[in-house]
């Protein structure tokens, strides 16, 4: 009997460790396969690879086109858009959510980078919150001046990329991926500046 209790306790610890830990800023966040995971709240899901986290620049997808996934533009007036709509100039895509601690941590530096990049490299902060109102309120409350609320409530981009949050992807003017970063980054730091200089 004691051995069964010990096994149950160990399994419980393993499951808890694998689940999304929004309080831990060092943890990558939710891959959005809600069918295969148990969500801790209506707008978050545990990552399929909870322990896997790159925290590095990934160039293995260089040259790939953006997924053909529709998401909502700010205000919803333009209707659904896809990343193909931004072809013709480089674009920086950031997948984030309000419940993702690393996302929240990097957001001020992403806003500052968006100010520096201006229209030359649009920054699309695309929320993966299932409740769009949360993302809109988050950006409003923090008064980010250069990040507009793009919304992907169906988590289509997270699923298409098969990635944890935050993930940031740079596309060239030709619509092809240059690199992606999984995990938070200081977007005003020297490493980020060197990466962003690759935008063409």
TrEMBL record:
One of its GO terms (molecular function) is disulfide oxidoreductase activity. Residues 60-200 form the Thioredoxin domain. GO terms for biological process: cytochrome complex assembly. The keyword Manganese does not apply. Gene3D superfamilies: Glutaredoxin. Keywords: Cytochrome c-type biogenesis, Disulfide bond, Redox-active center, Signal. PROSITE patterns: PROKAR_LIPOPROTEIN, THIOREDOXIN_1, THIOREDOXIN_2. It is found in: Cell envelope. Transmembrane segments: none annotated. This is Thioredoxin. It comes from Sphingomonas ginsenosidimutans. The lineage of its organism: Bacteria, Pseudomonadati, Pseudomonadota, Alphaproteobacteria, Sphingomonadales.
């Amino acid at each position: 009997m004691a051995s069964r209790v010990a096994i149950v306790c160990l399994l419980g610890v393993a499951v808890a460790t694998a689940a999304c830990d929004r309080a831990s800023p060092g943890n990558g966040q939710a891959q959005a396969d809600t069918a295969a995971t148990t969500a801790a709240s209506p707008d978050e899901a545990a990552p399929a690879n909870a322990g896997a986290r790159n925290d590095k620049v990934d160039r293995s997808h260089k040259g790939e086109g953006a997924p053909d996934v529709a998401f909502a533009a700010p205000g919803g007036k333009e209707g659904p858009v896809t990343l193909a709509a931004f072809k013709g100039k480089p674009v920086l895509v950031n997948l984030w959510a309000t419940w993702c601690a690393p996302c929240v941590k990097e957001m001020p530096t992403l806003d500052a980078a968006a100010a520096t990049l201006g229209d030359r490299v649009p920054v699309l902060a695309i929320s993966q919150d299932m409740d769009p109102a949360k993302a809109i309120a988050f950006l409003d409350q923090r008064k980010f001046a250069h990040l507009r609320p793009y919304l992907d409530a169906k988590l289509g981009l997270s699923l298409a990329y098969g990635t944890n949050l935050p993930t940031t992807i740079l596309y060239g003017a030709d619509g092809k991926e240059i690199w992606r970063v999984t995990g938070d980054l200081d977007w005003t730091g020297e490493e980020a500046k060197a990466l962003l200089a690759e935008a063409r």
